[in-house]
Amino acid sequence: DLLKEYEPHIHPIQIHINEHSKSINEALNSYSPLQLIIFTAIITSIVLWFYNFIFNNDEDIKVRLLQTIFRLLRRIPVIQRKIAQTKTNTLTSVYSDLAKSIHGHNFSTALPPKGLSEEDLITKLREYKDLEHIKYRNGRVSGCVYSVEKNDLTSIYCEILKLFGATNPLHADVFPDIRTMEAECVRMVATMFHGGPECCGTMTSGGTESLLMACKTYRDLALSKGIKRPEM
């Protein structure tokens, strides 16, 4: 009964759709099926690209438009040559600065036919040591080496190396001593930052890896909360 009630309104719409369908089919008769498939694929790709560009991105559309414009500009031959020249000049400058510190050094390019004696090895290592020209021990080289002049710890470093230099932290079952020290260090830091019983962590090889691991942890946390494209 409900359909019959709306049938007078539906019928004109059907006629209108059929007329337009007929007009579209007549207009497309001049194209081959292959051409229609290609046109459909191209149009679909363009529509999907615009949809992803506008909706499927966390960045502001203005920023993405500027990025797209700059990306297209970089493809212009004149700009490409300018960028390439700038990169070449920068690399040349860097290589030149690095080469100054090792000027005159005779590089070893192959293993010696006979192993070095202990005395010769130390002599060779001292030659490498003489290449240092920046006095980092005065504590004025930022982010490089943190030296304590008033309390030289070299002797204790050497003693620690004697004890644990041959260990491998990857094999926690073989080296419970390393595993235990790592666990204690992690817990000390967790306590320092008021971490609870469930707080955990891991040791890294240095400051850079620590920063990357922290960023990765927050990225994974964002993914677990449904954020599709967390910024790292």
UniProtKB/TrEMBL annotation:
GO terms for molecular function, please? sphinganine-1-phosphate aldolase activity
Query: What GO biological process, any one, is recorded here?
Result: sphingolipid catabolic process
Keywords carried by this UniProt record: Lyase, Membrane, Pyridoxal phosphate, Transmembrane, Transmembrane helix
Q: Where is the signal peptide?
A: none
InterPro entries listed in its UniProt record: GrpII_AminoAcid_Decarb, PyrdxlP-dep_Trfase, PyrdxlP-dep_Trfase_major
Kindly give the Gene3D superfamilies that the UniProt entry links to this protein: Type I PLP-dependent aspartate aminotransferase-like (Major domain)
- Which superkingdom does the taxonomy of this entry point to? Eukaryota
The membrane spanning regions, by residue number, are: 36-55
Question: Which PANTHER family would you find in this protein's record?
Answer: PTHR42735, SPHINGOSINE-1-PHOSPHATE LYASE 1 (PTHR42735:SF6)
Protein name (Swiss-Prot/TrEMBL): Uncharacterized protein
- Organism from which the protein derives: Didymodactylos carnosus
* Upper lineage: Eukaryota, Metazoa, Spiralia, Gnathifera, Rotifera
